[in-house]
């Protein structure tokens, strides 16, 4: 059986300039942050980032990696706005495709089902079609004749998601309360990478949670990355909650362009192990 | 009790939004809306379903009674329509268009906000109300910069499929309760909170608001006040959202 274990840097090395990448999770919840940090270390640029956005979008914008963001929102949940994304938008540094949250899910679902579009009411009458003039409507062929929005499929070159557990072959499991849309991200993508808090034997997966928690089967995964703390500073419940103190430090640093370089020096200039060690030191200092 | 605060009036006004809703999902955003929904469930709308803000539906005592992850919310709860959302708003215009996306020109906004979030889908699928803790001319504008939540003029232009379930119900603010029952679905006052004048509303709104038929928002009953103060919000978080 194929052992798909790889490293976050080897996964990110597959990215090419201009690719469309999907990032799982939701807001500041179970984001594949180790993969995001690896992208920050890589030379790749001009990405189209498809995300229920959180600090993943903010960090990638701050590093100049992003040409376009496809999103319904960008939020840090306990803090409403990501300062980097705000600045990128207000400076006109990134293009956007702004969808209703439900449209966004349908775009992934259409890609997952290999359909050209899926119909929805969401978006009708709003500025979403005005701001994305490529959007078209579709008329029901049945007696109701309803004219609905036809959300085009959003295929992805690469998807990154972070789950609680995975086996080496790519079966992967969420143990928190919400799967988010991580399975759709993988099904919509050509190459699929799952990072997990722990890589365990296949048998251990159903010891840890009900079989319904096995969100991804191995046919939807190309690479498995063991990344403890890999969602930090977002939640990866039940393994850990959001690091609110660190998130606040991120926001305070991001708000001030003069402070941001020292955040980068301290946390984002080494490898993932260096990041995790710096986070541990930050937490220890805050307690002291 | 004559020491009732403006925040407590607002909580009761939000609770009243849910009167008659029955067994649907109430989705309140913000402190006062959450307290209002809980108050309604604890009193006159016991069948309301309420989320814990994450993936669970919870009873009044915190007992988990259901699973409502984001995907289910967007795939079925919203399109199925048995839901009443109370959203916030950075801007609202006279026909009930709402903006939480960005201020200024969308291509390069003066201020990036959340994005449209679920507002487009909410407003064309089920009853939607709004909560504005600081009623002012920057919120109540002639024309919103980005239409996230769909108002009555835009939904009419978008056609029958958009209009079919569109139902922008009310706006509750720190000054009063408003609906869109004026000519061409213009915003008008349903009631002003005790101590609020018509002139005060006029000064705080960028377009004319008909207050002619407005009554006075009802004050909480003793039982409601006790619930708000002792059970639902003993820390008084509501007073931070609406300072007295």
UniProtKB/TrEMBL annotation, chain A:
Gene3D superfamilies: 3.30.30.40, Glutaconate Coenzyme A-transferase
Pfam families named in the record: CoA_trans
UniProt keyword annotations, A-Z: Transferase
GO molecular function: CoA-transferase activity
The protein's name in its UniProt record: Acyl CoA:acetate/3-ketoacid CoA transferase alpha subunit
Organism placement in taxonomy: Bacteria, Bacillati, Actinomycetota, Actinomycetes, Pseudonocardiales
TrEMBL record, chain B:
Lineage, highest ranks first: Bacteria, Bacillati, Actinomycetota, Actinomycetes, Pseudonocardiales
UniProt keyword terms in alphabetical order: Transferase
SUPFAM superfamilies for this protein: NagB/RpiA/CoA transferase-like
Keyword hit for Transferase: yes
GO molecular function, one term: CoA-transferase activity
Organism expressing this protein natively: Prauserella sediminis
Similarity annotation: Belongs to the 3-oxoacid CoA-transferase subunit B family.
PANTHER family listed in its UniProt record: ACETATE COA-TRANSFERASE YDIF (PTHR43293), CHOLESTEROL RING-CLEAVING HYDROLASE IPDB SUBUNIT (PTHR43293:SF3)
The organism's place on the tree of life at top rank: Bacteria
Name listed for the protein in its UniProt record: Acyl CoA:acetate/3-ketoacid CoA transferase beta subunit
């Amino acid at each position: 059986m194929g052992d798909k274990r790889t490293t976050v840097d080897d996964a990110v090395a597959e990215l090419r300039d201009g690719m469309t990448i999907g990032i799982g999770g939701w807001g500041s919840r179970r984001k594949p942050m180790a993969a995001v940090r690896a992208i920050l270390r890589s030379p790749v640029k001009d990405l189209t980032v498809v995300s229920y956005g959180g600090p993943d979008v903010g960090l990638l914008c701050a590093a100049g990696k992003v040409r376009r963001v496809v999103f319904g929102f960008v939020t840090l949940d306990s803090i409403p706005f990501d300062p980097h994304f705000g600045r990128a938008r207000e400076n006109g540094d990134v293009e956007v495709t702004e969808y209703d949250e439900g449209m966004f899910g349908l775009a992934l679902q259409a890609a997952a089902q290999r359909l050209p579009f899926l119909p929805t009411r969401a978006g009708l009458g709003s500025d979403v079609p005005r701001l994305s003039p490529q959007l078209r409507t579709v008329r029901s062929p049945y007696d109701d004749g309803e004219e609905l929005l036809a959300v085009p499929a959003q295929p992805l070159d690469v998807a990154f998601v972070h789950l609680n557990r995975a086996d080496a072959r790519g079966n992967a499991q969420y143990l928190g309360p919400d799967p988010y849309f991580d399975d759709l991200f993988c099904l919509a993508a050509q190459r699929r990478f799952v990072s997990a808090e722990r890589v365990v034997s296949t048998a251990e997966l159903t010891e840890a949670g009900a079989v319904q928690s096995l969100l991804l089967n191995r046919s939807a995964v190309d690479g498995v990355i063991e990344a403890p703390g890999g969602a930090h500073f977002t939640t990866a419940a039940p393994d850990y909650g959001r690091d609110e103190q660190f998130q606040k430090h991120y926001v305070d640093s991001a708000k001030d362009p003069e402070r941001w370089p020292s955040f980068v020096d301290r946390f984002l200039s080494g490898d993932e192990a260096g990041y995790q060690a710096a986070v541990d030191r930050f937490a220890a200092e805050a307690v002291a | 009790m004559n020491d009732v605060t403006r925040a407590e009036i607002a909580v009761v006004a939000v609770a009243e939004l849910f009167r008659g809703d029955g067994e649907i999902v109430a989705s309140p955003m913000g402190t006062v809306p959450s307290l209002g929904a809980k108050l309604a469930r604890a009193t006159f709308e016991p069948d309301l379903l309420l989320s814990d803000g994450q993936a669970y539906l919870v009873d009044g005592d915190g007992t988990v009674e259901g699973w409502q992850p984001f995907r289910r919310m967007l795939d079925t709860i919203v399109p199925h329509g048995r839901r009443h959302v109370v959203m916030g708003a950075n801007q609202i215009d006279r026909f009930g268009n709402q903006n939480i996306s960005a201020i200024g020109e969308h291509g390069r906004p003066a201020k990036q906000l959340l994005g449209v979030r679920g507002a487009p889908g909410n407003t064309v699928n089920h009853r939607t109300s709004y909560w504005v803790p600081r009623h002012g001319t920057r919120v109540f504008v002639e024309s919103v910069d980005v239409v996230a939540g769909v108002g009555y003029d835009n939904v009419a232009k978008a056609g029958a499929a958009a209009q079919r379930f569109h139902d922008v119900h009310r706006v509750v603010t720190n000054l009063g309760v408003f609906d869109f029952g004026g000519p061409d679905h213009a915003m008008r006052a349903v009631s002003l909170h005790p101590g609020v004048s018509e002139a005060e509303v006029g000064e705080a709104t960028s377009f004319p608001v008909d207050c002619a038929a407005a009554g006075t928002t009802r004050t909480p009953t003793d039982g409601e006040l006790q619930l708000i103060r002792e059970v639902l919000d003993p820390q008084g978080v509501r007073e931070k959202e609406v300072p007295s």
